[in-house]
Amino acid sequence: MTKPERLKWKASLIIGMTFAVGATTGAALNGIYLQASTKARDGRAPVLENLRRELNLTDEQAAAIRGAMEDTRRELSAVRFDQCPGFPDARRRLIERVRPLLAPGQQQRFTALVEGRQMRGEFPPGGRR
Fold first, then answer.
1. Is the pLDDT of residue 120 over 50?
2. Strand (E) or helix (H) holding 42
3. Where do the structural domains in the chain lie, given as residue ranges?
4. Predicted structure pTM score
5. Are the C-beta atoms of 65 and 101 separated by less than 8 Å?
6. Among 23, 71, 92, 95, which residue has the least CB neighbours within 10 Å?
Protein backbone atom coordinates (compact mmCIF):
# COMPACT_ATOMS: atom_id res chain seq x y z
CA MET A 1 0.00 0.00 0.00
CA THR A 2 1.32 3.44 -0.88
CA LYS A 3 1.63 6.15 1.70
CA PRO A 4 -1.35 8.29 0.40
CA GLU A 5 -3.61 5.22 0.30
CA ARG A 6 -2.56 4.29 3.81
CA LEU A 7 -3.30 7.85 5.00
CA LYS A 8 -6.78 7.75 3.41
CA TRP A 9 -7.44 4.39 5.06
CA LYS A 10 -6.39 5.70 8.49
CA ALA A 11 -8.46 8.86 8.06
CA SER A 12 -11.50 6.77 7.05
CA LEU A 13 -10.98 4.50 10.05
CA ILE A 14 -10.73 7.49 12.43
CA ILE A 15 -13.87 9.10 10.96
CA GLY A 16 -15.74 5.78 11.22
CA MET A 17 -14.69 5.25 14.82
CA THR A 18 -15.64 8.82 15.71
CA PHE A 19 -19.08 8.27 14.19
CA ALA A 20 -19.49 4.97 16.08
CA VAL A 21 -18.52 6.55 19.41
CA GLY A 22 -20.91 9.47 18.76
CA ALA A 23 -23.78 7.13 17.87
CA THR A 24 -23.16 5.01 20.98
CA THR A 25 -23.03 8.10 23.20
CA GLY A 26 -26.22 9.47 21.64
CA ALA A 27 -28.04 6.17 22.16
CA ALA A 28 -26.89 6.00 25.78
CA LEU A 29 -27.99 9.57 26.50
CA ASN A 30 -31.33 8.93 24.83
CA GLY A 31 -31.83 5.89 27.06
CA ILE A 32 -31.01 7.93 30.15
CA TYR A 33 -33.44 10.67 29.05
CA LEU A 34 -36.25 8.17 28.39
CA GLN A 35 -35.66 6.49 31.74
CA ALA A 36 -35.78 9.84 33.57
CA SER A 37 -38.93 10.97 31.76
CA THR A 38 -40.62 7.64 32.55
CA LYS A 39 -39.79 8.04 36.25
CA ALA A 40 -41.26 11.56 36.20
CA ARG A 41 -44.56 10.19 34.87
CA ASP A 42 -44.98 7.33 37.35
CA GLY A 43 -47.75 9.16 39.21
CA ARG A 44 -45.58 11.28 41.48
CA ALA A 45 -45.65 14.79 40.11
CA PRO A 46 -42.47 16.81 40.71
CA VAL A 47 -44.66 19.59 42.11
CA LEU A 48 -46.20 17.21 44.63
CA GLU A 49 -42.77 15.97 45.69
CA ASN A 50 -41.65 19.59 46.10
CA LEU A 51 -44.73 20.35 48.24
CA ARG A 52 -44.23 17.15 50.24
CA ARG A 53 -40.64 18.15 51.03
CA GLU A 54 -41.26 21.87 51.61
CA LEU A 55 -44.46 21.54 53.66
CA ASN A 56 -43.72 18.20 55.36
CA LEU A 57 -47.07 16.81 54.17
CA THR A 58 -48.67 13.78 55.74
CA ASP A 59 -49.51 10.83 53.50
CA GLU A 60 -53.22 11.75 53.71
CA GLN A 61 -52.53 15.34 52.66
CA ALA A 62 -50.33 14.18 49.78
CA ALA A 63 -53.01 11.75 48.58
CA ALA A 64 -55.70 14.45 48.69
CA ILE A 65 -53.47 16.93 46.86
CA ARG A 66 -52.55 14.27 44.26
CA GLY A 67 -56.28 13.73 43.66
CA ALA A 68 -56.84 17.46 43.22
CA MET A 69 -53.90 17.66 40.81
CA GLU A 70 -55.18 14.71 38.76
CA ASP A 71 -58.64 16.31 38.54
CA THR A 72 -56.99 19.53 37.36
CA ARG A 73 -54.92 17.65 34.76
CA ARG A 74 -58.07 16.02 33.39
CA GLU A 75 -59.74 19.42 33.29
CA LEU A 76 -56.77 20.98 31.52
CA SER A 77 -56.54 18.16 28.99
CA ALA A 78 -60.12 18.96 27.98
CA VAL A 79 -59.22 22.61 27.36
CA ARG A 80 -58.19 23.25 23.80
CA PHE A 81 -54.90 25.02 23.18
CA ASP A 82 -56.66 28.06 21.74
CA GLN A 83 -58.47 28.43 25.07
CA CYS A 84 -55.28 28.99 27.07
CA PRO A 85 -56.88 31.66 29.26
CA GLY A 86 -58.48 28.70 31.09
CA PHE A 87 -55.12 27.59 32.50
CA PRO A 88 -54.72 30.37 35.11
CA ASP A 89 -58.29 29.73 36.30
CA ALA A 90 -57.59 26.02 36.66
CA ARG A 91 -54.40 26.83 38.59
CA ARG A 92 -56.31 29.18 40.90
CA ARG A 93 -58.97 26.51 41.55
CA LEU A 94 -56.27 23.93 42.33
CA ILE A 95 -54.62 26.29 44.82
CA GLU A 96 -58.04 26.93 46.41
CA ARG A 97 -58.58 23.17 46.76
CA VAL A 98 -55.12 22.48 48.20
CA ARG A 99 -54.99 25.29 50.78
CA PRO A 100 -57.77 23.91 53.08
CA LEU A 101 -56.03 20.52 53.15
CA LEU A 102 -53.02 22.06 54.89
CA ALA A 103 -52.35 22.96 58.50
CA PRO A 104 -52.01 26.70 59.26
CA GLY A 105 -48.20 26.67 59.20
CA GLN A 106 -48.24 24.71 55.97
CA GLN A 107 -50.72 27.18 54.47
CA GLN A 108 -48.33 30.07 55.09
CA ARG A 109 -45.43 28.19 53.49
CA PHE A 110 -47.69 27.10 50.60
CA THR A 111 -48.67 30.73 49.97
CA ALA A 112 -44.99 31.67 49.92
CA LEU A 113 -44.26 28.84 47.46
CA VAL A 114 -47.12 29.84 45.16
CA GLU A 115 -46.24 33.53 45.28
CA GLY A 116 -42.56 32.70 44.85
CA ARG A 117 -43.53 30.87 41.65
CA GLN A 118 -41.89 27.64 42.81
CA MET A 119 -44.90 25.69 41.54
CA ARG A 120 -44.34 27.09 38.05
CA GLY A 121 -43.22 23.72 36.64
CA GLU A 122 -46.75 22.32 36.61
CA PHE A 123 -49.07 25.32 36.65
CA PRO A 124 -47.29 28.51 35.60
CA PRO A 125 -48.97 31.84 36.34
CA GLY A 126 -50.48 33.29 33.20
CA GLY A 127 -49.88 30.04 31.31
CA ARG A 128 -46.20 30.80 30.63
CA ARG A 129 -43.46 28.15 30.79
1. no
2. none
3. 1-42, 46-127
4. 0.40
5. yes
6. 23
